[in-house]
Amino acid sequence: xxxxxxxxxxxxxxxxxxxxxxxxxxxxxxxxxxxxxxxxxxxxxxxxxxxxxxxxxxxxxxxxxxxxxxxxxxxxxxxxxxxxxxxxxxxxxxxxxxxxxxxxxxxxxxxxxxxxxxxxxxxxxxxxxxxxxxxxxxxxxxxxxxxxxxxxxxxxxxxxxxxxxxxxxxxxxxxxxxxxxxxxxxxxxxxxxxxxxxxxxxxxxxxxxxxxxxxx
Length: 216
Fold this sequence. Notes:
Radius of gyration: 16 Å
Oligomer: single chain
Largest sheet: 7 strands, mixed
């Protein structure tokens, strides 16, 4: 389902939209029009079903990257928008930065020394995390970002990780599609939960892999 924006996009409107299962998009970075999306089939990453392959686990154990949280939100959003086609226009960019300043939006960064090479950002509302976009400039950087993200969501008490759509990349990591009605039921439960994202201790690759093994 797609609805064209009739109201001015604000942080409050964004949070309300998320709470009822809708999210904003634009046709391109230079298109000022914003529309709302509420898919019939919703992509989610089950928090107890994230798949770390043997090759990804081997890569993580080498710890080729440094992982941070909320260190460079602007850099992650810019990295996500740095592609030929993007739905992140100027207005959407500004509103997510506003949500970040209010403590609702978060980023997880992947660094190679001092270079940002990957990351993911999204919005946390209660015990629901709405993954907006991710990017990767090194092999496995986005997969590692998601592994750390899912670990953080589990540690923080989240119940839902929404990916909006299901891509082959997400499916290979355990992502699934569920009907809109099932998603709305999960969402209504998740947003009532008090969860934590930012104020958690950092995790090593070994921590993430061990916890994933324990819950598999």
